[in-house]
Amino acid sequence: xxxxxxxxxxxxxxxxxxxxxxxxxxxxxxxxxxxxxxxxxxxxxxxxxxxxxxxxxxxxxxxxxxxxxxxxxxxxxxxxxxxxxxxxxxxxxxxxxxxxxxxxxxxxxxxxxxxxxxxxxxxxxxxxxxxxxxxxxxxxxxxxxxxxxxxxxxxxxxxxxxxxxxxxxxxxxxxxxxxxxxxxxxxxxxxxxxxxxxxxxxxxxxxxxxxxxxxxxxxxxxxxxxxxxxxxxxxxxxxxxxxxxxxxxxxxxxxxxxxxxxxxxxxxxxxxxxxxxxxxxxxxxxxxxxxxxxxxxxxxxxxxxxxxxx
Amino acid sequence: xxxxxxxxxxxxxxxxxxxxxxxxxxxxxxxxxxxxxxxxxxxxxxxxxxxxxxxxxxxxxxxxxxxxxxxxxxxxxxxxxxxxxxxxxxxxxxxxxxxxxxxxxxxxxxxxxxxxxxxxxxxxxxxxxxxxxxxxxxxxxxxxxxxxxxxxxxxxxxxxxxxxxxxxxxxxxxxxxx
Lengths: 310, 178
Description:
The complex is a heterodimer of chains A (310) and B (178).
Chain A: H1 16-33, E1 47-52, H2 58-69, E2 73-77, H3 90-98, E3 104-109, H4 114-119, E4 125-131, H5 137-151, E5 158-162, H6 169-180, E6 184-188, E7 204-207, H7 210-214, E8 219-222, H8 238-245, H9 249-252, E9 260-262, H10 275-278, H11 285-303
Parallel strand pairs in A: 1-2, 1-3, 3-4, 5-6, 5-8, 6-7, 8-9
Helix pairs in contact in A: 1-5, 1-11, 2-11, 5-6, 5-11
Chain B: E1 4-9, H1 11-29, E2 35-40, H2 44-59, E3 65-68, H3 77-80, E4 98-106, H4 110-122, E5 127-135, E6 147-151, E7 159-164, E8 170-177
Parallel strand pairs in B: 2-3, 2-4, 4-5, 5-6
Antiparallel strand pairs in B: 1-8, 7-8
Helix pairs in contact in B: 1-2
């Protein structure tokens, strides 16, 4: 099995075998992160540009560490220090960066689908680190790896995703990946935050209450309320939101005993999750971050294969 | 055109070669002190496990056994496309060990170069020795084996395949002519 894609933009574009390959490669990469010398020479001489038009700590650091552990050279560009503030268009920025001969550009952008727009214009590989409300493939993969660690499989799991589904690229990538690998996804959120037609993405059930979604779930994934992406009118206030769609030790009991609690971060403590749950035994949030580096190493490795197929 | 295949070493032949290699390893290292076996995935790890068994039969001691995956250390990533990455699993400290690297077929020497780089990233062995079941020649690097099961002169068009059964035991070695 070989990976045939030059870019990784969305889990929607990958089939089941390709997603499984990325996850199993990440499982092997984890061993490197446990060594004293956390570096292998695989991508020596490759240049990787982190182009982040939206703020990020976890994802950017994680991609940068992943690149460095594979011996690639990385540079970070963020909008506040780039020519975007001087009015340069995305395409021009990309073409200028391209003139410096990078091998991979890792980009986060607020506009959904901006990677597809650029993919035709660049000769290097492009990895999506989050585009608007579309997809966040590395997060979807690391979430699936974390679930696989706990259950040994993804097939047949009940995964509840609760929160602002409409604005969540994390939810979309998870839905795309999980349904391809045989999990059932149940989504719940305020009606203003559940996109119409989400059930058409695959094995997805829309629930009107949080209780319905997390009942007997193997995994409860909570999403952040993305106040920067939504208007002010989607919910009355965070306290009311928390009351109906917040995870606390009481409603967590509805899920299966020992169910996993996940969150892509950053967490608004007391809004979507109570601190008791965030810091509780069932929380796998830091494990998700740990797996993030290995997953991103696997992504960088597989897009660097030169595109040849044996 | 169908490729012609000849069996150049059968199951009992492989067994005898490995028994001899086990004795040679013990003789050269004067016993099992600080000895460790590291197989190169995939193939060498199965042979290393066999050697561990044979050394146990002779010396009644289990020497540490590890496996190294060299995919991340290859020098031909772009040319080969992306191969699946296996796990490196060395459950003992390498520092000060006399490590015997084990592989099935020694050819260009590039795999061994990669495996040595991988080992050195994990620790500082006292020395590294090399045991192979088949040496087929055509080295591209200054590398030679300390223990060889069988020297097989080949042409570069030919291929040498070591077949393992489901229990990871070597069954036979075939020479495949194009």
